[in-house]
Amino acid sequence: MIKALARKTSTGDLYLCMAKQHLGNHEWGLALQAVDRALTKGSLSDVTEAQNLMHSIASLLGITPPEPSAAQNPGFGVDH
Fold first, then answer.
1. Which of these, 76, 74, 52, 72, lies nearest to 64 by C-alpha position?
2. pLDDT tens digits, residue range 46-56?
3. Cβ neighbours of residue 54 under 8 Å, at least 6 residues apart?
4. 19 close to 53: Cβ distance less than 8 angstroms
C-alpha cells in the first residue's frame, strides 16, 4: 500500500520512510533501493538525510554508494 502511494506522490519522502522501515527490519538491500528511489524522485524535505542514509546503508553493505537510480541495475556500487 505504501509503495503504491509513494509512486503517486510528487516527492520522494514516502520512499525515504520505506527505507527507514526496511532498515528497522534489517533489509539493507531494500532500504538502499528505497533511498535511491527517494533521491531519484526528488523534492525531498531533507535531501541531506537521504544522502546520509544512503551512505550509511552502503557502508553496512560494504559497497560504494550508488548514484541515484543506479540501484535498479544489478551489480551497482560493487567494488571490483
1. 76
2. 999 999 999 99
3. 32, 35, 36, 39, 65, 66
4. yes
